[in-house]
Amino acid sequence: xxxxxxxxxxxxxxxxxEDDLAEAALQLARIEYPGLRADDTLVLLQALVDRTAAFVQxxxxxxxAVGHLQHLGQFLxxxxxxxxxxxxxxxxxxxxxxxxLVRRTGxxxxxxxxxxxxxxxxxxWLEGVNFPGHFLVRCKGMLGDVxxxxxxxxxxxxxxxxxxxxxxxxxxxxxxxxxARFDRTLLAPAFKVHILVRMLVNLKRAYAxxxxxxxxxxxxxxxxxxxxxxxxxxxxRGLLSYQMGHYGVxxxxxxxxxxxxxxxxxxxEDDDSELKEEFEAxxxxxxxxxxxxxxxx
Length: 297
What we know:
Mean pLDDT: 92
Radius of gyration: 21 Å
Shape: globular
CATH topology of the largest domain: C8orf32 fold
Number of domains: 2
Structural class: alpha+beta
CATH architecture of the largest domain: Roll
Number of strands: 7
Low-confidence stretches: none
């Protein structure tokens, strides 16, 4: 991405309001597709909205929020064919909205963004849920002409099915281990910047698994542009630069990470053994990098 692309992405991410989430998410695809014409994809997305609206209006009674929700799912997943990519979950294309629209498959967060975008434009009050390990969607309770509705938690990765709290607890155990305890605070709404950061972290991991370290570092740059205080991203960017043989850049990031982590550790009264182990591991990398950089001078 060019510096101009990064600036445009950050401006969209930080612009007040949530209705341009899909537009902001689409900008991430420039990491892989520098010449992407975002407007062309937005036209396809609007055409999907128009088709969905026509189907739902013909199928559900006015004011029937639950009916609108059911027919939204039927149209997107049964008729348009959107589905979770179980066979190739780590494919980076699952994180790019332009690819998801064309291929009709993606990961929970990209399918949720399309679901939210379309659903909001047919009158449903939808919001993202940053649930651990598996992004979800909430349909807020609405007072329709037919009957009041309660909040519903939905899973667009699995066809928009409605989840109970017990279902959510099972998902949590699957991703965080049997010892993880479900709490309703885990269903708090996710806003635009949080969603974009999560998309970027998913994409970084996908690239790292493919050993595409240059692309992964580009993603880290974007995360840090959105959240300059992220120590995890500062560390990861340094380690990715190390893998690429960019030793001076790696050393600068990792030394800054150590300095900030040490400061945080001094302020923290708890004995965080995991953080200390990580600190020691990064310190070993820094010592190696200092020797490498010195040998090049």
